[in-house]
């Protein structure tokens, strides 16, 4: 049995009196594509922030390949090979697309806080940047200021920065939020291709995306995971149906049909 | 004994003056996020307006109208200056007020001259109130104490007993919520800035003749106001009050201490004739605020009673 | 009038070198603050230099050469002063007048010495009218520097000479600003008092940070509780005014002996309560007995500059001694004039002045002036002014101090 | 894939000739300007101004490493300038002592290379003070820098053995081995020293912006959260940048030490810290060359404008406020806008628009200058009157107020109309 890529055990988080995450336990195998779904306010973003180092857990443990990362600073977690994207585009808006990706590449290639070399002469960084840009199909827009990109492209750039560092555990927070249908399709294809062979943890509202992409799905409701299973099994799960009402429940049904 | 009594009295009065000066900035900073560099310049304007008004009529008229005038100037500055800069963020706002401080100083020099003006203590209060251990205590200082306490009471009443006050209180701790409550945010900002400046103006009316009214008084008080606000903590008038009191008392007590570094650190082998050893605690008194500023920011960035970090 | 329109022109002109003094003007560059917080003080000095030049020009100038004084604003900043010095050199100036701030004077002395060494034939002379650091005429003495004001040690000699005659002063408190000047004053006071009045008890000797104290009351109450019946302070600017104000407000009733009580704007700030209590050591005040000619000179000044008071008698003295030296040397070349100035005596309005040859320090009668509301000529357009009676006069010789100066002179 | 990537990599990064045009050529032009200036035979005044400008250029650029490139607003940058300068001036003293004494290391150290010592001093100070300061950006950083500046400048007057008290520490630059045949005595030789180091300073700061750290400093300024999620500790980025900014400020201090041969504690105080902020901001903090423009303009104003108006500080304050309110890009932003307009689709239209705007601005300036100069003269009460171009403008003259009001109203009108037109176009 291999060590899980990500292992969360009895994780809790409270903000003052508000108990947001109430004992989450979850193992994600290496190479697995795992989706987390759940109604609004279930604590998905909080969970993401806990794993990526944005928040400090109140109790419980988070292990990355067997190593405890709960409460570590985000940059340390990132260096251990876990990278995340944001729900709202969170890019370096005063830089060009190419520079944005380059920022994501630099640390992983060992250039760290270097102040003795010219980034223009770092051919391995240039090559890696170009590879990433190509893999997300932004090569032709490489010289544009990031702030001027159309929305969908900014989302793509967000993913590009996330995967640039070569982390093997990738967390995407609603990567297709706000995209049109065709844009979503493109994005899904792109994510699939770019995260080939990596462990993927994704939060998503679009059930089409979720069921299309995920190997397994966890359902988070009120800070607790009520079910973790293969997509087909999740569709048939009673508790999940109870938790989802109205449109979203229909969405699950619809996809099942 | 006498040192303690005097230091206590002076410390309290100086602390109250500092609080009067800083309370306005606490309001402005907490609600608008503007660390107004020109705040002490409004204090200076208060003193100069009071001087001109009291020359023309009397000190008591000045006590009422000078702060109102300063408040109006502040409101105008907010409306025609600060608001333009607001879109460029807090650093731009800070820089705007930094430039404004320069301007007010220069304009004051042109209008009132570059020397001190003879802004006198009103005759009614110009007598020694009592004598303590051989030193007289001027009545005006005690008057200062009462004005400051009255202001404190007034502020407390407005903030806790009126509707406007409750809105302000809410805004102090959650500034971005004001807009959601359906209030006209630009107008509230203008009012808060104006009122904040008026409070500084009131401090100027009182401090101008207690100390000296000259074009350097703004620059002299400038940085210390920040200390009070930052040490007190964002959104907390009580914190500002506490910080002002601590600063006032610490400074006056430090002055009263004759010890040198060598006396304190002698056990480390520090020699009284060495440069370091010969420094007295008293000579460090005016440095205390800045030491406090740096330490508080490093150790407790939310300040004494602040409800959030800067 | 300074015209903005000429700024562009001058900018162009400053690129091309302007060299050499014209034959018929003796140019004095006045390098002192003309803007900023110390602007008014500097402007007063410039006014008096310009007035002195005007008066001497009316009498035919120095050796037939017209005197021209130009102000250069140094913002009391040593580095900026050196830039202004270069500007002055470009304009053919050979005489520099400066006084505000020993830091500036020190930088100028250094720069002028180096300039004179590096540019023989273009020597420049420094006429110091107010920078009082004793070292300028002691271990750092210099052939190119002449001081027309008493240095801080000499002023302390004068103050303590006066204290010697005041039997009722028993306890003295010394308070000053925490920097070289304040420390020098404190040290000199302690030394002189123990020599001249061993019975006096120095009940306190305190330094406070320069320009940082807003409320002096705590200091003053310390002074009062120490039982002092006189206070000596070298403070200037706001530090002096605030100290005096706090002292009077708290009912300190001893004498307050100052160096700079007579400076601009202080009288207004001190007010009625300071009358008879605040004293200042100066070489002149406008209520001394004056000859008609001198009175006309003073009144002429105050009429011309209504916002300013006649204060620096030393500027008048310096101008006269400069003229005498130039006549004696029959030259306006700074080297010749400098040699002629050494040891020169001048019968000034207040008595005989001597420029010591050994350290280039002038010796002049000093007056322990008292702040008064009963004066013929007031200051700051107010009712107050300064007076000194015969007992307050300290003769020139009595202010002489030993010098450690070892003057090196250029070959003639 | 990697083949395509390699090809595109070359097309992605600027081509050799682009790099040359955009990066090398400006530097060469800068060097040529520096080298050509002495051909015009500048006066002493000009030389001393140029030298002061050189020092301020490096100082302002080092400041912009913080404000412009890292988003750190400091009110105490002169601390590092001063401490670096003091280190250099003490080293200058050591060179003098060693040359006349028993030799040793300092006897062989050329004064020409003192800015290295300055750099080391500034960087060391940055390393010590930066650690607690750089934990967070924004207001806390600004306030800590203010507090530290107050403390250090107070210490400057207290520790005479280090800072030399009020009169500071002076030295003599004409000691030790000569470099490049420069004795550094005459001011024109000092110019070569300053020019050399100004170039090195600008080059060094430019090179810094090209390093991984320099790039991440901009990234951290724009989005510290994101920087953290790509593996960087924002606090450490800021700290390292702070050390370098301190180092280059110290370099400028070292240049200043050799140029003036003296250092005084006022160099550590809040006033020069404020001045360097003005230089950088007025010049334009978003542009690499911005602080150069600001340093040149403000140095000139400081030393020359006071000859024409004692209200120069007021003009400086006004200029600053106008820039903050209406031209946040500073002078460089204004020039950049002009340049882009000229190369844009419709140069004639933009020229017309500027002509209108400039007319409006000039009219308002006439009005303001008249008001200020008239007021200053009235306030001084020396009976002097503002008399530009032979006009007589006393404070109670009808003509005076006409010269104040008419151009003001006209200027405001023109500018408002220009602004409306612009909005209409957009």
From TrEMBL, chain A:
Gene3D superfamilies registered for this protein in UniProt: P-loop containing nucleotide triphosphate hydrolases
UniProt keyword annotation of Metal-binding present: no
Domain called ABC transporter: residue spans: 6-247
Known EC number: 3.6.3.17
Primary enzyme class: hydrolase
Gene Ontology MF term list: ATP binding; ATP hydrolysis activity
UniProtKB keywords: ATP-binding, Hydrolase, Nucleotide-binding, Transport
Listed InterPro entries: AAA+_ATPase, ABC_AA/LPS_Transport, ABC_transporter-like_ATP-bd, BCA_ABC_TP_C, P-loop_NTPase
UniProt keyword Hydrolase, yes or no: yes
Any one annotated GO CC term: plasma membrane
Protein name listed in UniProt: Arabinose import ATP-binding protein AraG
Species this chain originates from: Thalassovita gelatinovora
Automatic annotation (TrEMBL), chain B:
Single GO cellular component term: plasma membrane
CDD domains, A to Z: TM_PBP1_LivH_like
Subcellular location: Cell membrane
Keyword Transmembrane: yes
Membrane topology according to the record: Multi-pass membrane protein
GO MF annotation terms: transmembrane transporter activity
Domain of life: Bacteria
Chief subcellular location: membrane
Segments traversing the membrane: 12-38, 58-77, 139-159, 188-212, 224-257, 277-299
Keywords noted in UniProt: Amino-acid transport, Cell membrane, Membrane, Transmembrane, Transmembrane helix, Transport
Pfam families: BPD_transp_2
Annotated GO biological process: amino acid transport
Family per record: Belongs to the binding-protein-dependent transport system permease family. LivHM subfamily.
Name this polypeptide is given: LIV-I protein H
Species this protein is from: Thalassovita gelatinovora
Organismal lineage: Bacteria, Pseudomonadati, Pseudomonadota, Alphaproteobacteria, Rhodobacterales
Gene: livH_6
From TrEMBL, chain C:
Family annotation (CDD domains): PBP1_SBP-like
Listed InterPro entries: BCAA_transport, Leu-bd, Leu_Ile_Val-bd, Peripla_BP_I
Keywords of the record: Amino-acid transport, Signal, Transport
Record's signal peptide: 1-23
A Pfam family matched in the record: Peripla_BP_6
One of the protein's GO biological processes: amino acid transport
Transmembrane segment boundaries: none
Domain Leucine-binding protein residue range list: 25-371
Family recorded in the similarity comment: Belongs to the leucine-binding protein family.
Protein name listed in UniProt: Leucine-, isoleucine-, valine-, threonine-, and alanine-binding protein
Phylogenetic placement of the source organism: Bacteria, Pseudomonadati, Pseudomonadota, Alphaproteobacteria, Rhodobacterales
UniProtKB/TrEMBL annotation, chain D:
One MF term in the entry's GO annotations: branched-chain amino acid transmembrane transporter activity
Entry's transmembrane regions: 20-40, 46-66, 78-100, 106-129, 141-164, 190-208, 239-258, 278-300, 312-334, 354-376, 397-415
Any Pfam family the entry gives: BPD_transp_2
Superkingdom, natural source: Bacteria
Name of the protein in question: Leucine/isoleucine/valine transporter permease subunit
Cellular localisation: Cell membrane
One cellular component (GO) term of this entry: plasma membrane
């Amino acid at each position: 049995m291999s060590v899980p890529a990500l292992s969360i055990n009895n994780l809790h988080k409270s903000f003052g009196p508000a108990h947001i995450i109430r004992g989450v336990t979850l193992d994600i195998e290496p190479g697995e594509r795992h989706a987390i779904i759940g109604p609004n306010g279930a604590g998905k973003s909080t969970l993401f922030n806990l794993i990526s180092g944005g928040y400090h857990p109140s109790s419980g443990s988070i292990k990355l390949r067997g190593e405890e990362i709960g409460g570590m600073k985000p940059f340390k977690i990132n260096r251990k090979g876990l990278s995340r994207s944001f729900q709202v585009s969170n890019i370096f808006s005063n830089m060009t697309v190419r520079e944005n990706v380059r920022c994501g590449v630099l640390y992983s290639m060992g250039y760290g806080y270097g102040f003795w070399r010219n980034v223009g002469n770092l051919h391995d960084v240039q090559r890696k940047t170009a590879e990433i840009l190509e893999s997300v199909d932004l090569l032709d827009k490489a010289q544009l200021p990031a702030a001027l990109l159309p929305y969908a492209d900014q989302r793509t750039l967000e993913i590009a920065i996330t995967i640039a560092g070569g982390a093997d555990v990738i967390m995407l927070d609603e990567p297709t939020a706000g995209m049109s249908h065709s844009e979503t399709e493109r994005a899904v294809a792109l994510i699939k291709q770019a995260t080939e062979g990596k462990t993927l943890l994704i939060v998503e509202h679009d059930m089409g995306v979720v069921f299309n992409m995920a190997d397994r799905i966890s359902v988070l409701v009120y800070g607790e995971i009520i079910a973790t299973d293969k997509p087909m099994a999740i569709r048939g799960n009673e508790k999940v149906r109870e938790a989802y009402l109205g449109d979203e429940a229909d969405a699950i049904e619809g996809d099942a049909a | 004994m006498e040192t303690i009594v005097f230091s206590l009295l002076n410390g309290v009065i100086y602390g109250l003056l500092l609080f009067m000066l800083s309370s306005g900035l606490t309001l402005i900073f907490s609600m608008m996020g503007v660390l107004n560099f020109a705040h002490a310049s409004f204090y200076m304007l208060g003193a100069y307006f009071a001087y001109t008004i009291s020359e023309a009529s009397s000190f008591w008229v000045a006590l009422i109208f000078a702060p109102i005038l300063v408040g109006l100037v502040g409101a105008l500055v907010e409306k025609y200056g600060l608001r333009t800069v607001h879109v460029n963020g807090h650093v731009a706002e800070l820089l705007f007020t930094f430039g404004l401080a320069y301007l007010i100083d220069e304009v004051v020099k042109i209008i009132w001259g570059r020397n001190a003006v003879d802004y006198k203590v009103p005759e009614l209060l110009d007598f020694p109130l009592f004598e303590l251990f051989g030193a007289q205590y001027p009545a005006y200082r005690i008057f200062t104490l009462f004005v400051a306490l009255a202001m404190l009471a007034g502020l407390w009443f407005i903030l806790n007993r009126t509707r406007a006050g409750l809105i302000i209180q809410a805004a102090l701790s959650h500034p971005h919520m004001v807009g959601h409550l359906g209030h006209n945010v630009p107008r509230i900002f203008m009012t808060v800035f104006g009122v904040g400046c008026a409070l500084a103006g009131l401090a100027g009316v009182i401090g101008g003749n207690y100390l000296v009214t000259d074009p350097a008084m703004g620059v002299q008080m400038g940085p210390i106001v920040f200390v009070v606000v930052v040490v007190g903590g964002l959104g907390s008038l009580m914190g500002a009050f506490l910080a002002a009191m601590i600063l006032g008392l610490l400074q006056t007590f430090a002055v009263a201490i004759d010890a040198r570094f060598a006396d304190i650190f002698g056990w480390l082998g520090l020699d009284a004739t060495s440069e370091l050893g010969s420094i007295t605690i008293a000579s460090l008194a005016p440095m205390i605020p800045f030491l406090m500023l740096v330490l508080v920011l490093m150790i407790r960035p939310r300040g004494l009673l602040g409800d959030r970090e800067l | 009038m300074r015209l903005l329109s000429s700024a562009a022109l001058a900018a162009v002109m400053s690129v091309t070198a302007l060299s050499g003094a014209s034959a018929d003007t003796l140019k004095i560059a006045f390098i002192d603050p003309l803007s900023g917080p110390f602007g008014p003080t500097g402007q007063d000095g410039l006014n008096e230099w310009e007035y002195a030049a005007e008066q001497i020009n009316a009498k035919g100038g120095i050796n037939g050469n017209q005197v021209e004084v130009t102000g250069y604003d140094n913002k009391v900043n040593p580095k900026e002063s050196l830039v202004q010095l270069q500007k002055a050199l470009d304009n053919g100036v050979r005489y520099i007048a400066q006084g505000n701030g020993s830091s500036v004077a020190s930088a100028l002395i250094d720069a002028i010495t180096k300039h004179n060494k590096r540019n023989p034939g273009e020597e420049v002379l420094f006429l110091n009218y107010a920078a009082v650091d004793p070292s300028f005429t002691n271990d750092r003495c210099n052939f190119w520097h002449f001081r027309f004001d008493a240095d801080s040690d000499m002023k302390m000699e004068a103050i303590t000479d006066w204290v010697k005659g005041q039997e009722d002063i028993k306890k003295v408190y010394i308070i000053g600003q925490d920097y070289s000047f304040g420390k020098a004053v404190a040290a000199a006071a302690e030394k002189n008092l123990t020599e001249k009045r061993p019975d006096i008890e120095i009940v306190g000797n305190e330094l406070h940070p320069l320009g940082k104290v807003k409320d002096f009351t705590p200091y003053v109450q310390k002074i009062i509780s120490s039982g002092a019946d006189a206070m000596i302070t070298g403070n200037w600017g706001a530090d002096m005014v605030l100290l005096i104000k706090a002292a009077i407000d708290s009912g300190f009733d001893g004498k307050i002996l100052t160096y700079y009580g007579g400076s601009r704007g202080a009288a207004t700030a001190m007010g009625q309560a300071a009358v008879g209590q605040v004293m200042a050591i100066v070489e002149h005040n406008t209520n001394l007995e004056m000859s008609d000619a001198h009175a006309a000179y003073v009144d002429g000044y105050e009429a011309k500059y209504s916002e300013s008071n006649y204060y620096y008698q030393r500027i008048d003295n310096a101008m006269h001694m400069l003229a005498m030296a130039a006549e004696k040397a029959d030259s306006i070349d700074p080297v010749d004039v400098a040699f002629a100035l050494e040891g020169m005596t001048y019968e000034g309005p207040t008595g005989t002045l001597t420029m010591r040859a050994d350290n280039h320090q002038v010796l002049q009668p000093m007056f322990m002036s008292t702040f008064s509301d009963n004066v013929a000529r007031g200051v700051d357009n107010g009712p107050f002014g300064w007076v000194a009676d015969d007992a307050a006069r300290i003769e020139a010789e009595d202010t002489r101090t030993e010098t450690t100066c070892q003057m090196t002179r250029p070959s003639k | 894939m990697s083949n395509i990537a390699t090809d595109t990599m070359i097309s992605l990064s600027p081509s050799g000739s682009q790099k040359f045009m955009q990066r090398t050529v400006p530097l060469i032009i800068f060097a040529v300007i520096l080298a050509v200036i002495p051909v015009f035979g500048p006066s002493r005044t000009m030389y001393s101004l140029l030298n002061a400008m050189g020092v301020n250029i490096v100082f302002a650029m080092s400041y912009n490493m913080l404000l412009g490139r890292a988003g750190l607003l400091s009110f105490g940058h002169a601390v590092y300038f001063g401490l670096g300068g003091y280190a250099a001036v003490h080293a200058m003293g050591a060179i003098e002592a060693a040359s006349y004494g028993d030799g040793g290391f300092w006897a062989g150290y050329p004064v020409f290379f003192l800015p290295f010592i300055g750099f080391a001093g500034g960087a060391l100070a940055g390393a010590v003070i930066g650690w607690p300061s750089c934990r967070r950006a924004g207001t806390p950083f600004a306030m800590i820098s203010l507090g530290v500046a107050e403390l250090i400048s107070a210490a400057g007057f207290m520790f005479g053995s280090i800072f030399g008290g009020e009169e500071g520490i002076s030295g003599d630059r004409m000691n030790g081995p000569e470099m490049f045949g420069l004795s550094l005595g005459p001011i024109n030789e000092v110019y070569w020293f300053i020019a050399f180091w100004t170039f090195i300073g600008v080059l060094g700061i430019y090179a810094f912006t090209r390093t991984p750290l320099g790039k991440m400093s901009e990234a951290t300024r724009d989005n510290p959260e994101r920087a953290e999620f790509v593996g960087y500790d924002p606090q450490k980025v800021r700290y390292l940048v702070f050390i370098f900014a301190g180092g280059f400020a110290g370099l400028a201090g070292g240049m200043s030490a050799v140029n003036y041969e003296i250092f005084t504690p006022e160099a550590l105080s809040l006033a020069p810290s404020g001045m360097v902020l003005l230089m950088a901001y007025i010049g334009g903090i978003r542009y690499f060359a911005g602080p150069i423009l600001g340093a040149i303009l403000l140095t000139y104003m400081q030393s020359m404008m006071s000859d024409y108006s004692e209200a120069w500080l007021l003009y400086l304050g006004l200029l600053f406020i106008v820039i903050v309110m209406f031209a946040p890009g500073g002078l460089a932003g204004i020039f950049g806008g002009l340049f882009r307009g000229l190369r844009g689709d419709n140069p004639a239209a933009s020229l017309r628009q500027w002509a209108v705007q400039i007319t409006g601005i000039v009219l308002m300036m006439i009005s303001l200058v008249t008001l200020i100069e008239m007021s200053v003269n009235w306030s001084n009460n020396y009976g002097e009157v503002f008399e530009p171009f032979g006009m007589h403008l006393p404070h109670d003259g009808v003509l005076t107020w006409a010269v104040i009001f008419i151009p003001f109203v006209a200027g405001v009108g023109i500018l408002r109309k220009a602004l409306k037109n612009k909005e209409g176009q957009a």
